[in-house]
Amino acid sequence: MSRLEPVRDTLREGEYYAGLILGKDGAPDHHLILLPGEIDDVTWAAARDWAVRAGGELPNRRELALLFANQKEHFQRVWYWSREPSETRSQLVWGENFSSGIQTMYGRQFHGRARAVRRVIQEDGGSSAAAPEPDAASAA
Fold this sequence. Notes:
Blueprint: H1 5-8, E1 16-21, E2 30-34, E3 39-42, H2 44-53, H3 61-71, E4 79-85, E5 92-97, E6 103-107, E7 112-114, E8 117-122, E9 128-130, H4 136-139
Antiparallel strand pairs: 1-2, 2-8, 3-7, 4-5, 5-6, 8-9
């Protein structure tokens, strides 16, 4: 049996499997699932809140790149918020342009689009478990 079959079996209506994200710095690998729906014309804080209500969270930069590569057809040709603030300029947040694939930073008060994702942790031995909810520090 393929290692992907159990993950694909967890897809709910309107969800799309985006691929595997390799863990960094000791973090486990995880499968990325694009949730249905999107929101437009929202600040970063409103986008984060919406993603939680949608049952997931905003994708990080690496996940946005994977979504651009594997699920681009499910996005408008505009930019989307990530969950990653700039490390050096706290008022800025990363986003990705789904027309060009370029990632750049936007002010938290700008209005943009958002999609939500959920993660399925890839455990050793090929079994998968749902990713834990992010802590408040990762969303700040």
